Amino acid sequence: MTLAVEIETVSGVRLRQFRRRRAVLVGLAVALLVAFALALNLGDYPVPPGDVLRSLLSPLTGAVNKGVDFIVLQVRLPRAILAILSGAAFGLAGIIFQTLLRNPLASPDIIGIAHGASAAAVFCIIILGWSGLSVSLGALAGAVLTAIAIYLLAWRNGVTAYRVVLIGIGAAAMLGAVISYLFTRARLNEVQQALAWLVGSLNAARPGDAIVLAVALLILLPLLFGLVRALEALELGDDTATALGARVELTRLGLMLVAVSFAAFATAAVGPVGFVAFVSGPIARRLLDGAGRGFAQAALVGSLVMLVSDLVAQHALPSVQLPVGVVTGAFGALFLLWLLIASGRSGRVN
Predict the structure, then answer these.
(1) If we measure between CA atoms, which residue out of 47, 119, 93 comes closest to residue 260?
(2) Three-state DSSP class for 159?
(3) CA atoms within a 13 Å half-sphere pointing along the CA-CB vector of 268
């Protein structure tokens, strides 16, 4: 094979991969747009698409319909935006951990990060008697402190994926025991409040929650883009990356802090919604079929899973609104079973 033919072959492969990435990205964006439109349209009081559009444009056009504007702008729009932002944050957190640790089980809700946020939130509710924003801030601090503790415990002349996953699973079990203990000394109303937070829900979505999460994403995304380039060297192995001049531990620590921040801010906004971070990366990569890492696609998958799950939670049962975490938990459990069966047949986990 001549050099010209080899170059042409490589160019053809790259072109096909680019087209695949673009097609998946566009397809997910269209699906998310459709789900967003349904979220604004469906409900106890259905709003026709024309009225939805008119209400969204009312700040610019001056056309006012108080009833429709309240439903669309004050109730459904903040909920839908928060679902999209939190789903994207969970999706990015999951795929960063899975890529960095080379393990599909290495997502924040599996290796203890979400459990740290949950334990801190339950402590704030039951012991300190906090509520609202204070609980969210406590959950944020709990996630960050848990991540730091896991990293330090996993350190032994460096950090390996194997130790992080095992220590994270152990930390999750210990924090689960702490939550159970706190429940034994709580009053019934405190247990109900804590359980409602632990399941994860968008029922109390407020515009302020979406704004805080949007600001966090605007800060974290440039940091992620800057670190992703160094991830290419880490994927070759620590020894090779070091030989190429990469700062292995510093890059790994930076990526882990960014991933923890994504998960922590999303958890503080909507609670520890299960399995969104876990499923987003594998679904994105299967759609890409080897045509890229899939960070942007994982963010869109996370948003789509979160928004569609919330639609199902609101409308699946008549006169009953389920927390979104119930639906994502059921979907995530089924996906995990399917992933284990598929990996058992192929001998590997993608």
Answers:
(1) 93
(2) strand
(3) 26
Query: Taking each helix axis from N to C terminus, what angle separates 113-126 and 161-184, rounded to the nearest 10 degrees?
Result: 20
| Beta-carbon contacts of residue 212 (< 8 Å; ≥ 6 apart) | 265, 269
Burial (Cβ within 10 Å: 0-12, 13-18, ≥19) of residue 43: middle
- The helix-helix angle for 276-288 and 295-315 (nearest 10°) equals 120
CB atoms within 10 A of CB 114: 31
Residue ranges of the chain with per-residue pLDDT less than 70: 1-8, 10, 233, 235-246, 291, 343-350
Q: What are phi and psi for residue 347, nearest 5 degrees?
A: 85, 5
- Could you read off the pLDDT of 310-324 as tens digits, one per residue? 999 998 887 778 889
**All domains in the chain, ordered by first residue:** 17-346 (1.10.3470.10)
Of 240, 253, 243, 259, which is closest to residue 298 (Cα–Cα)? 259
Question: Contact, 16 vs 291, CB < 8 A?
Answer: yes
What SS3 class is residue 309? Answer: helix
Report the predicted TM-score, pTM, of the whole model to 2 decimal places. 0.91
CB burial class (10 A; 0-12, 13-18, 19+) of residue 292? middle
Q: Are 96 and 259 in contact (CB under 8 A)?
A: yes
- Cα 17–Cα 23–Cα 28 angle in degrees, nearest 5: 130
> How do residues 273-302 score in pLDDT, each as one tens digit?
989 999 999 999 989 887 677 899 999 999
Q: How does DSSP assign 93-120, residue by residue?
A: HHHHHHHHHT-TT-STTTTTHHHHHHHH
HSE, side-chain direction, 13 A CA sphere, residue 347: 0
